[in-house]
Design a protein that fits this description.
Layout: H1 9-15, E1 20-23, H2 33-37, H3 43-47, E2 53-57, H4 63-71, E3 76-80, H5 84-97, E4 102-106, H6 112-115, E5 121-127, H7 145-154, E6 155-165, H8 168-180, E7 184-189, H9 202-209, E8 215-220
Parallel strand pairs: 1-4, 2-3, 2-5, 3-4, 5-6
Antiparallel strand pairs: 6-8, 7-8
Length: 232
């Protein structure tokens, strides 16, 4: 069932233009390769600094990205969400919170390579991604091989990936997929404690209230530095 579009969606999106780096539409698939190359974002110009970049893919209503940006003013954040109906809420909340080190991309995750430079992300965060439980949809999971190939290009030399989910099967499948695609999986946790440094998303709060365990891991490419400087 399709989500009903929010009232005045385009007007609300336009009002968030200062935070929204790109909004992808059907036009994207009519662009030539050269035209797509012109979409590349100059991140240093956007933020006016060379701070580390944390990329959250599938940000939902933005609670994780906003709280992280508030807690880590010396790190810049880019939050990605393909649904305009959802990202508009994240942008509005970020504007109301007055965060300066957070921007948004209203694009599909598989197209991020056209928008972001290689080796630009010190951390890629996957928070409660859709598990796509049917095997026939496995290639849509954000930890499938095609996405991991993209992350390899986007991660900085000392970069790493984090995942949190409530779905044990998806979690174990992801850990195996990461290992098969050349990532070293570490800090694996089958019941993440809700400590003071754990940013709780709206989904995480819901699952914790239901008494469900939260699964978490980190992953990096073995040849890269073990000194991960981005936010945890």
């Amino acid at each position: 069932m399709r989500m009903r579009l929010k009232k005045h969606l385009n007007e609300r999106i336009d009002n968030c233009a200062e935070l929204l780096l790109a909004r992808e539409g059907d036009f994207f698939y009519r662009l030539s390769e050269e035209e797509k190359k012109a979409l590349r974002i100059d991140i240093c110009s956007v933020f006016g600094n060379n701070n580390p970049i944390v990329l959250e893919i599938g940000c939902g209503k933005g609670s994780w990205a906003i709280q992280m940006a508030q807690q880590h003013p010396n790190i810049d954040f880019i939050a990605v969400e393909k649904l305009s109906n959802v990202i508009v809420v994240a942008c509005e909340q970020a504007m109301n919170a007055g965060v300066k080190n957070l921007r948004f991309l209203n694009v599909r995750a598989e197209n991020l390579g056209w928008y972001l430079p290689e080796k630009s992300a010190s951390q890629i965060a996957l928070n409660f991604s859709c598990p796509f439980p049917k095997k026939t949809y496995a290639n849509r999971r954000l930890t499938s091989g095609s996405y991991l190939a993209l992350y390899r290009r986007l991660l900085a030399d000392d970069g790493y990936l984090t995942q949190k989910t409530d779905n044990k099967s998806f979690f174990e499948w992801s850990a195996e997929s990461l290992a098969q695609n050349g990532f070293e999986v570490y800090d694996v946790c089958y019941d993440l404690p809700n400590t003071s440094d754990n940013i709780v998303t709206e989904y995480e709060a819901k699952f914790r209230n239901e008494g469900l365990p939260i699964y978490a891991l980190k992953a990096r490419l073995p040849a890269r530095s073990e000194n991960c400087t981005a936010a945890k």
